[in-house]
Amino acid sequence: MKPKIWLSSPHMGGAEIKYIQEAFDQNWIAPLGPNVNNFELDLENYLNHNSKVTALSSGTSALHLALMMCNVKRGEEVFCQSMTFSASANPITYVGAHPVFIDSEPDTWNMCPEALREALEDRAVRGKLPKAVIVVHLYGMPAKMDEILQVCEEYGVTLLEDAAEALGSTYKSQKCGTFGQMAILSFNGNKIITTSGGGALVSKSFARKKRAIFLSTQAREDAPHYEHAEIGYNYRLSNVSAGIGRGQMEVLDERIEARRANHRFYSELFSEIDGVEVLTEPNSDYFSNHWLTAININPEVAGFSREDLRVRFERENIESRPLWKPMHMQPVFEEAHYFGSGHVAEKLFDNGLCLPSGSNLTDAERARIAEVLNKVLV
Ligand SMILES: *Cc1c(COP(=O)(O)O)cnc(C)c1O
């Protein structure tokens, strides 16, 4: 069996070990310390737009804190893009709220502004607007931010951004993760940069950053003993993990360029094949980090289906994966409301496939991928 080609695997830059060594040398093996502070500073400088960053144990915990800080209460609603990873929606249930799922649109595969408007209008008529809207930049592709911000503003609803897959992506030259009142990032092992496991909450004020630190370190009041007036969480990133993050920030631009080169490789590979669309920026307002390159196959035109291609890859020990299964189709969310008359997310799930997109993909691996495709086509 040939060695496995992964969808997306960790890719160290070299300096990570230096920062970890520093943590060991200074005995900062705690969920605080200079690596955490400096990793946050690196991210703040990178994102700009007055971003205040709190480093946390995961993107999921960051979203949980964001919802708490939006004051989402039990029984209230939060709107969320349906086509996404479950971590975008699970935290809604952690605070006892109900997710309402919104369809995608065909250009970016992200939240459809019209479906969002329809859903908000429906709730406005009932006098029950959601506490927040969660938009996701899937696979690194920025959502239609102008339209989505406009709709949220019209209805006076808070926008949260799930930028877990989109660090380094921009919309009209502004970084993803800086549009919403708050945003989350993820540094899980498969993301564009990793801390082995970790995430961050991006907000716009020092007060919010302080609040996130407070809640993520067990809500300890200012006292010499342990005093608690609120329920807290153990969500802070460790100083060792943050050392990996500092090293990864040094190579982030290279990682983005490598992922974008993968996207160019696939775009060329599929350019001659009718019936296969490669997810690509709709126009020059959009810049995707192309975390994963994803395709949408029309089986009637292409002559092969998503499953045909996936199984062929699997036989050659090449990992590929169907697009995210929309949340409104998941058994766990079968009770949730859904707005989407276009059924865009369902169709993308039927016909979409994510392709190996690691920044460490080699020319030899690309050749193996191209070979499988040639076999499928004959
Ligand atoms: C990875 C991911 C998350 C969650 O991040 P974790 O750090 O794994 O908790 C959230 N949303 C999306 C879209 C993701 O891809």
UniProtKB/TrEMBL annotation:
Matching entries from InterPro entries are given as:
DegT/StrS_aminotransferase, PyrdxlP-dep_Trfase, PyrdxlP-dep_Trfase_major, PyrdxlP-dep_Trfase_small
A single Gene Ontology molecular function, please?
transaminase activity
Instruction: Please provide an example of a Pfam family that matches this protein in its UniProt record.
Output: DegT_DnrJ_EryC1
Query: Which key words tag this protein in UniProt?
Result: Aminotransferase, Pyridoxal phosphate, Transferase
Q: Which domain of life is it from?
A: Bacteria
User: Would the keyword Transferase turn up in this protein's UniProt record?
Assistant: yes
Family to which the UniProt record says this protein belongs: Belongs to the DegT/DnrJ/EryC1 family.
Q: What is this protein called?
A: Aminotransferase class I/II-fold pyridoxal phosphate-dependent enzyme
Lineage, highest ranks first: Bacteria, Pseudomonadati, Bacteroidota, Flavobacteriia, Flavobacteriales
